[in-house]
Design brief:
Helix content: 25-40%
Bound molecules: guanine
CATH architecture of the largest domain: 3-Layer(aba) Sandwich
Number of helices: 8
Strand order of the largest sheet: 5-4-6-7-10
CATH class of the largest domain: Alpha Beta
Number of strands: 10
């Protein structure tokens, strides 16, 4: 099933679930940066919330806000009984300690899944494994190769895919991996997750298993002004997720799923 079709189905299901709830879930999105990619993500998240019948509020703060004032806002949201879940859009301005902000969010309202004690899966990794599972991808014993060790994608995905229930053999590659090793691991990979943020991380010069699956997390603005993934298009594998219209949509639907869970768990 294509990602667009999968997401449309999940949205319909969430819409029905919310319609049957005593109260609409409420999401707050805190944005304190001037990042154009963030602005586009936030717009998408607001649109999704409206489509499934949830309330969503955008709290736009100045990028010059102090860490202390941002933490105060987080605390207000933690204590606001009308708010079921909220996220602080990343990246945060340089003068703010991202880790401190993540840990300030009440884990029960942490629908991004970023808190160390959160009960929610982080949205991008969750979207990826749920989508693959819905497409009958058999995880157990498969060789999963993840490119990129970010805190919001690569590292949590390595943890999830190696956990009981998924049982993949996980290899996490990064900027210090040699070309020779990268080519070796890719050639043996059943599942390849490209999450580096650079065009051309995967190209036709590498050897792939013909039934390999490539999940492309990259969203890069090319010199042509268009959006490109980390992988070059049309690699010789069984499935390669598109960019745009790929993993970004999965991340967004996971946020809505976490929001519905947060509201139910309250
Ligand atoms: N920046 C890029 N992806 C994400 C995400 O999933 N959540 C938040 N809060 N910020 C992001």
């Amino acid at each position: 099933m294509e990602i667009k079709e999968y997401v449309a189905l999940r949205k319909e299901e969430l819409k029905k679930e919310i319609a049957a709830m005593a109260r609409k879930p409420k999401l707050v999105i805190v944005k304190a940066n001037e990042n154009p990619a963030s602005a586009s993500y936030v717009k998408g998240k607001m649109k999704d919330a409206a489509e499934i019948g949830a309330d969503a509020e955008l709290l736009e703060l100045s990028s010059s806000i102090s860490e202390e004032d941002l933490l105060k806002k987080v605390d207000e949201l933690n204590n606001d009984p009308t708010v079921d879940g909220f996220i602080v859009q990343l990246p945060l301005p340089r003068h703010i300690d991202e880790e401190k902000v993540k840990l300030a969010v009440n884990p029960k309202k942490d629908v991004d899944g970023f808190h160390a004690l959160t009960t929610f899966l982080p949205c991008t990794p969750k979207g990826i494994v749920d989508y693959l599972a819905a497409n009958d991808f058999k995880f157990a014993g498969k060789n999963a190769v993840i490119l990129g060790r970010s805190n919001i994608v690569g590292k949590p995905l390595a943890r999830i895919l190696s956990s009981k229930g998924y049982d993949c053999n996980v290899t996490l590659l990064h900027s210090r991996t040699s070309e020779e090793d990268k080519a070796f691991y890719l050639a043996h990979a059943d599942l390849i997750i490209a999450a580096v943020g650079k065009i051309g991380v995967l190209d036709a010069s590498y050897k792939y298993k013909e039934d390999a699956v490539i999940v492309d997390v990259g969203i890069n603005r090319g010199e042509d002004g268009l959006l490109h993934g980390d992988a070059l298009p049309n690699l010789p594998v069984r499935l390669q997720t598109p960019v745009p219209g790929g993993v970004g949509l999965l991340t967004r639907i996971s946020l809505m799923e976490n929001l519905v869970l947060a509201t139910k768990n309250k």
